[in-house]
Amino acid sequence: MDELEEVEVRTLETPFGAPSGPFTVGKLPRGEGREPLTCVFVSRHGPGHLALPGELNYRANIWGLKQLGVTHLLAASAVGSLREAIVPGHAVVPDQLIDRTKHRETTFFGGGCVAHVQFGDPMDAGLRDKVLEAAEAVIATDDEAELHRDGTLLVMEGPAFSTRAESELYRSWGCDIIGMTALPEAKLAREAEMAYALLATATDYDCWHLSEEEVTVDAVIAIMKANVARVRKIILELATRLPESCEELPWPRALAGALITDPTKIPPATRVSLELIVGHYLSA
């Protein structure tokens, strides 16, 4: 983003392997009299979009953000629409997720350390409210966009798009949009005790929509490009609406009461790999 100041590019190693790419750290201005907001950006698919959704190292990405001090995470995702009212180009701030992924590492835990976090409400309410405020302000001045304030996002494995039968099934479940990257990302953010919200932009109607042509990569990319500028504006607006310190926005203490394993029984190697995530609980 051109508005980002004091930019530093950080390359990190993690106990879970390499992240998708370098992390860009910088400050976003928030207007006269206010301290700029420190932000960290990482591209899920890496420079040049080289990785499939199922190939992404979600654990390394979340671990890296945690290592850099991130407490609140806004994810931006391109999605397909499962509803007539959600027109390509519209924005959605979903409040629920359904997991249809198959082959991904979904937790930091294991290896002798067991934890079960609550995930009934996968989005953080406080951060989500701020995202809605920012999106409303930007989209109010945009005749080609509309904001949908909630919805259920189905996360599929990919990389192929849905069959028509699958698309109709997901609609019958009450799903509103469909994508490939929000999970296990949101689950890992919860385990890392980071507030998570998602800003989705529709690029197409999924194949249920018989009056529309079936999804093509060219069509998706064309609409994605139009959506990028809108998302950037929303991020800039969000920066002005967040409190002086994100510490003022409560976020989930998801691991309080979630750890099952006796800390004295956790293998040393596992303790080392999880120190950033659970160290303050193990030493309490």
Written description of the protein model:
- The chain is 29% helix and 19% strand.
- The chain has helices at residues 58-67, 125-139, 164-172, 185-191, 217-241, 268-282, and strands spanning 5-10, 23-28, 37-41, 72-81, 91-92, 96-100, 147-148, 152-156, 177-179, 195-205.
- It has one domain (73-281): 3-Layer(aba) Sandwich (Rossmann fold), CATH 3.40.50.1580.
- A seven-stranded mixed sheet has the order 6-8-9-4-10-5-7. A three-stranded antiparallel sheet has the order 1-2-3.
- A hairpin with an 8-residue loop joins strand 2 and strand 3 (37-41).
- Helix 2 packs across helix 5.
- The protein is built from six helices and ten strands, in the order E-E-E-H-E-E-E-H-E-E-H-E-H-E-H-H.
- It has 284 residues and is α/β, with parallel strands linked by helices.
- The longest helix is centred in the last third of the chain and has 25 residues, at 217-241.
SSE order, one letter for each helix or strand:
EEEHEEEHEEHEHEHH
Number of strands: 10
- The dominant shape is globular
Number of domains: 1
- Taking strands numbered 1, 2, ... along the chain, how are they ordered across the largest sheet? 6-8-9-4-10-5-7
Radius of gyration: 19 Å
**CATH C-level label:** Alpha Beta
Question: Structural class of the helices, strands and pairings?
Answer: alpha/beta
The low-pLDDT segments are none
Biggest β-sheet strands, sense, barrel: 7 strands, mixed
Terminal-residue CA separation: 40 Å
| Average pLDDT figure | 93
